[in-house]
Design a protein that fits this description.
This protein is an alpha+beta fold. It folds into three domains: 97 residues, no CATH class; 115 residues, no CATH class; 169 residues, no CATH class. 44% of the residues lie in helices and 14% in strands. The longest helix has 30 residues.
């Protein structure tokens, strides 16, 4: 069958081809109506996906306007049956005019979606409580509500060869570098996926290096975080059917920032941000330092502490590295169980499991009490990090650093750290160095990454995203 089948003047031929394209689905509704004086039309829609009441209202308006459908973006002309089938599958109702060989698609989506709620994965104490939903139109409206600027540029595209998914590319005209926007369009146009299941599908297609575990793009459920990225000269991709928006370019140090930093006093925000960075370091290296110290570098510990650790480890038959791996794996299992179980019992199971297993393991002489403390402190440090992909990366790197520490001590930790920094320095996100502004070093950009500048002094745009303008505003002297 041709990919561009025109709408025929034969109504029965149109219906037969359309039914064939939609696999003779039992929920496909096809009927004849007389919307205006020009003659009969064939209306086609999917039961349950399109709202009959909304369609009826639009048809009454269509009859009143004698074929001119007034509401903007509620309808669009179509010329081929393939286009009609795609739109019907997306929740549109299609009118086919056999007498003129043309058609009209009416937006009549009636699917019940959840209302705007607070994001569960990015809850805050201060700041807006609204989060994205699965509706692309609602998400765009939410962004425009919070960012009411005529410079906000929204570009729609359809992705997927099997299931057509609507996405929107957002940028700020006159601020976002057009080269970045062009590069994003080029990478999205190269996507050959048959179905877009979520934001991660697009992320893996457009990322600079799809084989790295480090996230080169960022996802968020919060409109204010998207707006903060746009005002820095970055871009956003919003996808139909998922409440997560993609932000890019993305650098490593941005993983330790949360939108709530800008709703507290800058002293408080800066302190918490530094604490978050320290917890990320401890979460990655604390088990490794413990294993290296008790295995190779006893002389670095004070004698009373060394005696305490030695007496605690005396009944344990396993070396420190086995203890460490066992406790980290057990902690990850309990964490995953707490997430997957129903919310009412998940938290209780994870807490009770940790207490019972930890106490039983110590009493049975399987692990030492100091190892339980190290594992618990490591887990708590990772809980302080934002719920981004970098959190999982740090938890995976714990095992690699601990293994190196068990073989070479502090030398192994330093070797692992050097290899890690070297590898991260080679990564790029849309051409932006992944470790910037730390490497290459830029003090002006680093001051709003490690600490937060006061809003009246946050007048300079970060240069690492190459924005078209340099200043947010000019301070009066």
């Amino acid at each position: 069958m041709s990919n561009h089948t025109p709408i025929s003047h034969n109504r029965e031929h149109n219906k037969a081809l359309l039914q064939e394209m939609l696999q003779h689905a039992d929920d496909l509704i096809i009927s004849e109506i007389h919307p205006h004086k020009q003659g009969a039309a064939t209306v086609c829609y999917l039961d349950g996906l399109s709202d009959p009441m909304k369609l009826e209202q639009m048809l009454l308006l269509l009859q009143k306007e004698e074929g001119m459908l007034a509401p903007f973006r509620q309808s669009q002309p179509i010329d081929t049956l393939e286009e009609a089938a795609d739109l019907i599958a997306g929740g549109y109702a299609v009118l086919l005019y056999a007498h003129s060989g043309s058609g009209l698609a009416i937006h009549a989506l009636g699917l019940q979606l959840r209302s705007v709620e607070e994001p569960t994965s990015e809850s805050v104490l201060k700041g807006p409580r609204s989060g994205f939903t699965e509706s692309l139109q609602n998400n765009i409206a939410l962004l425009r509500y919070h960012f009411s600027s005529p410079h906000l540029k929204v570009e729609f595209k359809k992705l997927g060869t099997l299931s057509r998914t609507n996405i929107a590319i957002l940028s700020v005209a006159g601020l976002t570098n057009p080269k970045l926007v062009k590069e994003l369009h080029q990478r999205i146009n190269e996507i050959q996926a048959d179905t877009i299941l979520g934001s991660n599908t697009i992320q893996e297609w457009i990322t600079d290096n799809p084989y790295t575990m480090f996230p080169l793009t960022e996802t968020t459920e919060r409109p204010d975080r998207v707006i903060g990225a746009l005002r820095d000269g970055r871009m956003a991709v919003v996808i139909q059917g998922t409440p997560f928006a993609i932000l890019l370019p993305f650098t490593f140090l941005q993983a330790f920032q949360v939108s709530e930093d800008y709703y507290w006093n800058y002293y408080v925000s800066s302190t918490i941000r530094l604490l978050r960075l320290m917890c990320g370091f401890l979460g990655m290296f604390l088990p490794a330092f413990y294993v290296a110290t008790v295995t190779f570098h006893h002389e670095l510990l004070p004698t009373p502490l060394l005696q305490s650790i030695a007496s605690a480890k005396e009944p344990v038959p396993f070396p420190a590295v086995v203890e460490s791996f066992a406790m980290m794996i057990a902690f990850e299992i309990m964490r995953e169980a707490g997430v997957r179980m129903p919310r009412q019992v998940g938290q209780a199971v994870s807490i009770v499991g940790a207490l019972i297993l930890g106490q039983a393991a110590v009493q049975a002489g399987i692990v030492s009490p100091i190892m339980v403390i190290v594992a618990a402190l490591t887990g708590i440090c990772t809980f302080t990090l934002p719920p981004t992909d970098i959190n999982y990366v740090i938890r995976i790197l714990q095992f690699g650093m601990t293994l190196l520490a068990s073989m070479l001590g502090y030398v192994g930790i330093m070797a692992g750290f050097i290899m890690l920094i070297t590898y991260m320095s080679s990564l790029r996100s849309f051409g932006i160095p992944y470790l910037s502004p730390a490497a290459p070093f830029s003090f002006a950009n680093l001051t709003d990454v490690i600490i937060r500048r006061p809003h009246p002094y946050d007048n300079k745009l970060p240069s690492l995203f190459r924005p078209l303008v340099k200043w947010r505003f000019r301070r009066q002297r």
